[in-house]
Amino acid sequence: MKVSIIGATGYTGAELLRLLGGHPEADIRYITSESSAGKSIAEVYPHLQAVQEAKLVSMEALDEVAADSDVLFIALPHGHAMAVGKRLEKTDVKIIDLGADYRFKDTAIYEAWYKVPHTHKDAKAVYGLTEWYREDIRGAKIVGNAGCYTTASIMALAPLVKKGLVELDSLVVDAKSGVSGAGRSLSLNSHFGEMYENLKAYNVGGHRHTPEIEQALGGLAKTSLVLSFTPHLIPMARGILSTCYARLKNGVEAAAVDAAYEEAYAQEYFVRLLGRGGYPATKAVRGSNFCDLGWHVDLRTRRVVALSAIDNLVKGAAGQAVQNMNVLFNLPEKTGLELSPVYP
Amino acid sequence: MKVSIIGATGYTGAELLRLLGGHPEADIRYITSESSAGKSIAEVYPHLQAVQEAKLVSMEALDEVAADSDVLFIALPHGHAMAVGKRLEKTDVKIIDLGADYRFKDTAIYEAWYKVPHTHKDAKAVYGLTEWYREDIRGAKIVGNAGCYTTASIMALAPLVKKGLVELDSLVVDAKSGVSGAGRSLSLNSHFGEMYENLKAYNVGGHRHTPEIEQALGGLAKTSLVLSFTPHLIPMARGILSTCYARLKNGVEAAAVDAAYEEAYAQEYFVRLLGRGGYPATKAVRGSNFCDLGWHVDLRTRRVVALSAIDNLVKGAAGQAVQNMNVLFNLPEKTGLELSPVYP
Amino acid sequence: MKVSIIGATGYTGAELLRLLGGHPEADIRYITSESSAGKSIAEVYPHLQAVQEAKLVSMEALDEVAADSDVLFIALPHGHAMAVGKRLEKTDVKIIDLGADYRFKDTAIYEAWYKVPHTHKDAKAVYGLTEWYREDIRGAKIVGNAGCYTTASIMALAPLVKKGLVELDSLVVDAKSGVSGAGRSLSLNSHFGEMYENLKAYNVGGHRHTPEIEQALGGLAKTSLVLSFTPHLIPMARGILSTCYARLKNGVEAAAVDAAYEEAYAQEYFVRLLGRGGYPATKAVRGSNFCDLGWHVDLRTRRVVALSAIDNLVKGAAGQAVQNMNVLFNLPEKTGLELSPVYP
Amino acid sequence: MKVSIIGATGYTGAELLRLLGGHPEADIRYITSESSAGKSIAEVYPHLQAVQEAKLVSMEALDEVAADSDVLFIALPHGHAMAVGKRLEKTDVKIIDLGADYRFKDTAIYEAWYKVPHTHKDAKAVYGLTEWYREDIRGAKIVGNAGCYTTASIMALAPLVKKGLVELDSLVVDAKSGVSGAGRSLSLNSHFGEMYENLKAYNVGGHRHTPEIEQALGGLAKTSLVLSFTPHLIPMARGILSTCYARLKNGVEAAAVDAAYEEAYAQEYFVRLLGRGGYPATKAVRGSNFCDLGWHVDLRTRRVVALSAIDNLVKGAAGQAVQNMNVLFNLPEKTGLELSPVYP
């Protein structure tokens, strides 16, 4: 399988190189960067020396790249993948976009939250959260790989919503992420002195992963819904924990909650159920494609508190992208992804 | 003013020494420790060399200690302060307990959550969250200094609850703390390799600060209430951020929320209002007695999201204890506490 | 190949499980623990759930374990491997000891530094620093896997010493390690609150890795030597950087230094030469078996400063142990170890 | 005492504001910034809200600033203070420069290492490492405040060199610093994702603090000398540890080493002698002006290993600047600097 990466020099691109480099069926053909074209990737990321030393090329020669690839991963900032998708619409290459351009069924929602016009509204794109949309992904041309916060949050809440166990107007998602989620671009918020031993929320009520979670959960609930989503920056590099709150409907008992998680995930290799009373920890999934889930039923408040932990760069980005590639090409989903977490 | 500290070798005790050592009116007389009696405090905490080198004594000679003190700070694990308070009931010494023993009006709640019998039910104790209970504290014999999570959480929600702006059954507090909150006792949860680049929740639905927050907010609302409280461990030493969610009552607008915070805190030196849209950060209060507050009104979900940041060892423990001492002794509240945060 | 691990619940044991779990030829048979016998390893290390869930057994049934294993990894505190080695002397099982018991040719040195009698002085043991002792290892019964600091330090200095380029009485090794090097046992030095944003030296002049480095370099120099070795604790979990100082002999020029490194390592997959002027970084090797090397020639002081970075749990322990296993069993040395560093 | 700060928006400037804000004799008049002129300092550093809210002005009106100040602190990048010093030569204002422009007696050394012409060669400037140059500082017009690495390193080695106990060609300084030393300017080296759980050396053989250490030690030895100095970046915000190696001269015994430290520092409040065998830790001085010292005599190698820890922003910059101000104005040296370290 010939694979290429459009935009390989962000943290997501680098993580794709780590994972695809260890994938037995993947043969990396082209990796592109506009800012570093002509350099080897190991000049940009010295940790890749001896692991992956391909030369970065410009994406100007996109048609050539596509012609020599079975699948393209796009790891560009949002707004840039649409042009690529449209240009390659008639080719055979499969596209997995790690940005937001192809995540929304209703492109008006994309336009409202991302403030850019959508230029590829009729794309044959599916949403790439593998465990919930596997059948759609199988035959797709374009996969809009799910976001990091969204993957963690949907995984935690979907079983409850699908089974109709919780009040839909009660959903609150309090999410925490390591700083790598903000990427490799320099900013005061990612400056070591500012974020070390620091902790803060950002974008309350306005983070763009909100409508993505709402779309997925609304789809399962078969009704539109809104929820509160609050992201936080945590002084660590990798990892997301989503703490999700929902009011149980009258009469729903803890056993029904347990059953919902079991039914949804008992067969899923990448979902590790820590059970009722379980406490996922980001370090326990670091470097791996696992999503760890635990849930708590608080009868005093009639709320369920669902917790999920992922590595934002793996299950929240590059790992899930490879998982989707495996689905697209009918490989066993675990191929290249049976990575032990790196602990401690 | 002669001050003594019962239980000086925990992190809270050490922080009291830092703050009282810089307090112009405080003269430290006795510091006690059962495990390290006979040592100097600088042997236990080398950072205190040349700052504070008093010898630790056993609390066996408690009557002597009390006789030579105007105020005693108790920094013992819960369950141990009651005996001290009872034994000194008839003396003139004032007591500020940094544990939970004297925080509850209804000692049955204490007994239910802390699983120990309360042995000093008729104590003349007041709750020590200064900004909200200042007048009670002024003449008190015993102050039950507010907890760390509770201080952050009550400060954020109290103005909304007091003004009746939010639905009382909608309160969710998602709190995050640095690891020093777990103290200096060794445990796997505080082991460096386990918590570095790690993040997790604990005690969901069962943390003992829950009823303390409920007592305070219920008191302001003049009705009993329950809420969801979830604590998290964050890979940093100091700092707490509380992210608080509440549904606005019908008809309540953002301006009323702003007014509630202004009315509650505009005159408070230690409360820094970052305003609507503000983002408190734990590092911005590190080492100081400030509580930073910001709030967000999300009209899509009709929720207000209130954020507060404190240093758990200062405003969440030793700093507030000194603030309470200043109130007890009619000193200006800022005395000894005009500390700039240490940044970066 | 049937492999077993004696003492699987320390950080080194857990890392062996991560690496052997991904090794295509290794079949894990027994894992032992005295304190956790009867539990599954995933109860002790939740990150291993779904990755490795074998049950821990006691090492009492050592003969059975050995009879069903081709190779035993011993990850016990020093002093305990000798009994195992002696008991299994007549069996066919190969032994790779990750502790210090089998590292010294002259067991009197072991006894002097480790303060325990050596009870297996006539063992057929070889020193397990693969790149330098590969040929010895090939036919060995017992491998005394090199220590973490020692691996980093020897790799940096060996080419200079072997080629006779530096004054042997001028060697200074200033080494820095993440806290995981101190293991999972609880101690104040590994307590999060104490080591976060902290940095200090320990065991100056007395660290037990000193004679191990001296043995190896003295062997290459064909003379005994002493050097200064200073270990430091760094507030991170994984990684070692050794900064090594040596005075160039008169007349030696930079080109000779370059040539020494090239000659020693140009063909070594796990050694990445960053060249003269290069700066190894621990994060660039995290999770991998690489040793990154850079060197600097300072003509003002006539010193060469050699820098090496490894992951203390991989090339400094479990990774090198697997590399040695590959040598013992005539597998390509990279088997199971072609792991990309995990970055960021 | 009227004080102003030229260049107040770097980390050093912010630390000056923290310290001068708590100084009982200092009245802050002007704080300047070219990039943020017109803003309040609390907009640039939110942690200073309610602590220090002065408005930043441009330094264009330097003459006015100087006319209304008794002392100016200059916290500009090197190369910019000389113009200020020259322009104010005839005024009465005292100048404390926290950069390198006024640190060198021989300005040719400055020019060689800093690559800029020195434009104020005849300045009446003294070197500002208080404990060693106190008498010179007392009557000075301009103080060239000592650098961070240099303060730590000179404090550790000066007693040995002054007493002639060590071989001058054997000096090696291996220094480690938190990332705040690199300032608030954005760079990949200070990017959170790059430096978290990372560790590396930089500028081997070429760091500009090298000649500053050599100047001071050479002055004490009354001969010129060169030494090896290697700085490292450590994943923490604040703190420097210098590990210094020197070969004892023949016949020198441990007692002479002890005596040298005692003689040099027994009367110094800000130097805490941890004694022979002591281990300074950066966290034990965090936020304070202390320099902690320990030393080790290794008879195997005939080397003394001297260790010193400081907070790079306090004793390594702003704290020592205030200490120098106290000397300049005949205040007790501790004034405003009796700060307890902030621990944990």
For the CA atoms, what is the radius of gyration of chain A? 20 Å
Give the overall average pLDDT of chain A: 97
Given as residue ranges, the uncertain stretches of chain A (5+ residues, pLDDT < 50) are: none
Which architecture of the largest domain in chain A per CATH?
A: 2-Layer Sandwich
In words, what does this structure look like?
The structure is a homotetramer of 344-residue chains. Chain A has 344 residues and is α/β, with parallel strands linked by helices. The first copy, chain A, folds into two domains: 122 residues, NAD(P)-binding Rossmann-like Domain (Rossmann fold), CATH 3.40.50; 166 residues, Dihydrodipicolinate Reductase, domain 2, CATH 3.30.360. Helices cover 30% and strands 22% of the residues of chain A. Chain A has eleven helices and 14 strands. Chain A has a seven-stranded parallel beta sheet. In chain A, strands 9-10-8-11-14-13-12 form a seven-stranded mixed beta sheet. The longest helix of chain A is centred in the middle third of the chain and has 15 residues. The mean pLDDT of chain A is 97. Chains in contact: A-B, A-C, A-D, B-C, B-D, C-D. At the A-D interface, α8 of A face α8 of D.
Provide keyphrases for this structure.
homotetramer; 344 residues; alpha/beta; Rossmann fold; Dihydrodipicolinate Reductase, domain 2; 2 domains; 7-stranded parallel beta sheet; 11 helices
